[in-house]
TrEMBL record:
UniProt record, GO biological process: L-cysteine catabolic process
Gene3D superfamilies: Jelly Rolls
Residues annotated to bind Fe cation: 82, 84, 135
Organism placement in taxonomy: Eukaryota, Fungi, Dikarya, Ascomycota, Saccharomycotina
Protein name (Swiss-Prot/TrEMBL): Cysteine dioxygenase
Keyword Lipid biosynthesis: no
GO molecular function annotation: cysteine dioxygenase activity; ferrous iron binding
Length: 163
């Protein structure tokens, strides 16, 4: 099973419409689980910017409204607490491990309520939407971590993105 095959399978699975009912969450999760990370298949997408906590790198756009990115996480660094408004975010750990802190989406910014902390080792998968909560991702190790993210609808470019 190759990254190229995964991209083809994801493309077949993802519908053109952006409604939640048309995103086959279980099917996408299973496709990501089935793919076993092989560094030689994704290393060309794993560009680093050591000045940022993590670097986003576009792998491909899937259909007209989804994209697949490789994120490289610097050792010991983390994201801000954030949501994914009107977006399905699927993630697979390609190298190392990440720690996800999930926060209650109804709690106020000044009084965040931590729901759970999960450690995600290599080849594990995760899924988040704002309905499930806000989250914060962290690389708790002394080595880089690399993750694959599928955004439906697609992630729009911002600072620190190699698209």
């Amino acid at each position: 099973n190759s990254l190229k095959n995964l991209i083809q399978d994801l493309s077949s699975s993802i519908q053109e419409t952006r409604t939640e009912n048309n995103v086959k969450i279980r099917e996408v999760m299973n496709l990501l689980r089935y793919y076993q990370s092989k560094e030689e298949q994704w290393t060309k997408y794993a560009l680093r910017d050591k000045d940022n906590n993590y670097t986003r790198n576009l792998v491909t756009n899937i259909k007209t409204h989804s994209n697949l990115l490789v994120l490289v996480w610097e050792p010991g660094k983390q994201s801000n607490i954030h949501g994914h408004p009107n977006t399905h975010c699927f993630m697979k750990i390609l190298k190392g491990q990440l720690q996800e802190k999930l926060f209650d989406p109804t709690s106020s910014e000044s009084d965040r309520v931590l729901k759970r902390t999960t450690t995600l080792p290599t080849n594990s998968v995760a899924y988040i939407t704002d309905e499930l909560g806000l989250h914060q991702m962290k690389n708790p190790t002394a080595d880089i971590a690399v993750s694959l993210h599928l955004y439906v609808p697609k992630y729009e470019a911002g600072s620190g993105v190699n698209l």
